[in-house]
Design a protein that fits this description.
Elements: H1 3-13, H2 20-30, E1 39-47, H3 50-60, E2 68-73, E3 80-88, H4 92-107, E4 111-118
Antiparallel strand pairs: 1-3, 1-4, 2-3
Helix pairs in contact: 1-2
């Protein structure tokens, strides 16, 4: 990483809590994404069984938090992934709460969280 990029990232790191979500938010902010706006945040939930993934996806799309959910099988691992799409401002506390909420529902279907990400609309 070039020195200028390290300095910019270090500036952003000081603005966010020192945890995985804080680091990811700092990297996204350093890339020039406006974190004060609404974005589509994708939360990734993993399942060993396709039926569990499909049941979770069916339940979660009836939830007011989630706008859409896609079920896919990972080619490399064979694990089933439900990508839940949530429109929200990517604020640290809200992200953590959304992750915990989705995982609490996924746990009842033998699923577990695998993080989140967002696509900058300019890159889409």
């Amino acid at each position: 990483m070039p020195t200028n990029t390290k300095l910019i990232l270090n500036e952003f790191l000081m603005q966010f809590p020192d945890d995985d979500n804080g680091l990811l938010l700092a990297e996204i902010a350093a890339a020039g994404v406006d974190l004060s706006k609404m974005h589509q945040i994708d939360f990734f939930i993993l399942f060993e069984q396709q039926t569990d993934a499909e049941k979770f996806a069916k339940e979660i799309i009836s939830d007011a938090l989630v706008q859409n959910a896609d079920v896919e099988k990972c080619k490399d691992t064979g694990v089933w992934e439900v990508i839940t799409h949530v429109q929200m401002v990517p604020e640290h506390t809200l992200l953590g709460q959304a992750e915990q909420y989705l995982e609490s529902i996924a746990n009842s279907y033998n699923g577990y969280g695998d993080g989140w990400g967002l696509m900058d609309e300019d890159a889409a």
